[in-house]
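Collaborator request, handled under Task 6.
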Amino acid sequence: MMHTIKTRLKILLIIFVALIVAGTIGFMAIEDKPLIDAAYYVIVTVATVGYGDIHPVTPAGKLFAIVLIITGVGIFLGVIANVTEIMLAKREIESRMEKLNMVIGVFFSEVGMKLLCSFTGYDPDFEKIREELVVKATWTDENFLAVSKDLKNYDYGVDIQIVDLKDMKTFLLNERGFLVGLLENPILMEHQSFTDLLRAVFHVLEELSFRNDLSNLPENDKAHLAGDIKRAYNLLINEWLDYMKYLKSNYPYLFSLAMRINPFDRSASIIVK
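Structure tokens returned to the collaborator:
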């Protein structure tokens, strides 16, 4: 929608500028006005100001002015209307994104942080990236970007032999209603990465829920489950990092709490020191 409005505005602005130029040249030729006077008259006419200090005196000039008023005023008002529409649409988008980030915050409080602790505990190489996930108050956007780039090269390993599948199944089944509610939220369609994360987590839930006995799975099936967990693990880490960046930029008090309960920071403490 926003793209359509902007495209329409660009077209109207091009027509509007062309009209100003054509009108200025027309009055210079027809009314024998200097450039500044001709341009001034065109502007006050299409802007519906009409001071009356300059006006056409020749029949051709008056006819030209009529055409200018009919076309120019309509185009000018169209430009104003589209600018207003873009401002309102931008405000609406910001409002929806605010609600979306509230939903993401609830997700991490209810499900995400528990899964993060579990997934990282099953990753034999997690210590290689632990320090990078100790977010500091001094971090800038460049710090977040640098860590995000480094994480793209990380393997996100999952040792399926130490994964407590029964515990994970029980936890996710208990949160099924919550996860389904999130997936049904239409706001999520505007945040593709978070939607992908939810689908990945829900897929892990489905895979586990359809297996009645998780204690004697064949190795091929375990490898399959490890791949599903790895997908969710990858998306979860990156979404958490983005969420921490959002909190730092918009809600310092929530960011302070998030740092004090950061599961990756061994020195983190809820107590403010």
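The cover message to the collaborator said: "The longest helix spans residues 59-121. The two ends are 48 Å apart (CA to CA). Please let us know whether this matches your experimental observations."
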